[in-house]
Amino acid sequence: MSLPFLAKRTFSTSIPNLYKVTVLGACGGIGQPLSLLLKLNNKVTDLRLYDIKNAKGVATDLSHIPTASKVNGYSADENSGLANSLDSTDLIVIPAGIPRKPGMTRDDLFNINAKIVHDLAVASAKHAPNAAVLVISNPINSTVPIVAKVLQKNGTYNPKKLFGVTTLDSIRASTFISEIVKTDPTNEKVNIIGGHSGITIIPVLSQTSYYNRLSDDEKTNLINRIQFGGDEVVKAKNGAGSATLSMAYAGSRFANAVLDGFEGKQNVVEASFVDSPLFKDEGIDFFATNVTLGTDGIEKIHDFGELQPEEISLLENCKETLKKNIKKGYEFVESN
Ligand code: NAD
Ligand code: LMR
Question: What ipTM describes this predicted complex?
Answer without folding.
Answer: 0.99
